[in-house]
Amino acid sequence: MKELLKGLNIYLIGMMGSGKTTVGELLAKELEYRFLDTDAIISAVSEKSINQIFAEDGEDEFRQLESDVLQEVSAYLYTVIATGGGIILRQQNWSHLRDGMVVWLNVPIDVLVQRLKDDDTRPLLKREELQTKLTSLYEQRKSLYQQADITIGIEENDNPNDIVQKIMVEI
Ligand code: S3P
After folding, report:
1. Could you give the C-alpha distances from 90 to 49, 81, 96, in angstroms and in order?
2. What is the DSSP letter of 27?
3. Is the CB–ligand 1 distance for residue 65 below 6 Å?
4. Are 105 and 23 in contact (CB under 8 A)?
5. How far apart are the CA of 2 and the centre of ligand 1, in A?
6. CB of 84 closer than 6 A to ligand 1?
7. Is 13 contained in some domain?
8. Does residue 171 lie in a domain region?
9. Domain range holding 61?
């Protein structure tokens, strides 16, 4: 619990649909920490949905906004931060993530497919070939997610409270 005593931020990383926002809100309540979500902040400051940013400004612009928001939120303490699934892609983001405790929610692809099959808010995913796309993104990103301080293996029947308890044991 060393990091907790210092009030270091907890960054939740993981694939789209891995539950970072839902789990993050509950974890923040449990710890009496503030909760922030980088996608929500990006949407609020740009007054656009994530889909709109990708469509109108492109992924590079989105990644820049994401890095800027991460830099700003890293100034806080006592905060649980749900990040976008691609936050791990830019090396520069790791210098901020590393200031806190990085927790990877590792969810099986089949579970992600079930959760995302009716979702149209993720510009990187089309409903067709969802399984193939998620598998290839996971394979591309796995070695980056593995750089987390803590990995939480999530099983199909875990509910958000179970996951919070798994995290509490590790931090
Ligand atoms: C992305 C994940 C999304 C969002 C954007 C890109 C990604 O966030 O940042 O659509 O590259 O994995 P969630 O992980 O919260 O869905």
Report:
1. 22, 17, 11
2. H
3. no
4. yes
5. 30
6. yes
7. yes
8. no
9. 2-166
Instruction: Please tell me the residue having the least CA distance from ligand 1 atom 11.
Output: 86
158 lines ligand 1 (CB under 6 A): no
Whether residue 50 has its Cβ less than 6 Å from ligand 1: yes
pLDDT tens profile 29-80: 999 999 999 999 999 999 999 999 999 999 999 999 999 999 999 999 999 9
CATH assignment of the domain containing 82: 3.40.50.300
Q: So what's the ipTM on this one?
A: 0.98
pLDDT tens profile 69-88 = 999 999 999 999 999 999 99
- Count up the domains in the chain and report the number: 1
User: Among residues 34, 121, 110, 57, which one has the least CA distance to residue 85?
Assistant: 121
Instruction: Answer yes or no: is 70 within a domain.
Output: yes
Q: Residue 122: CB within 6 Å of ligand 1?
A: yes
Helix axes 59-73, 38-46, angle to 10 degrees: 110
Helices (H), 117-159: 130-145
Distance 143 CA to ligand 1 centre (A): 17
Q: Which ligand 1 atom lies nearest to the CA of residue 122?
A: 10
Looking at the chain, how many residues does it have? 171
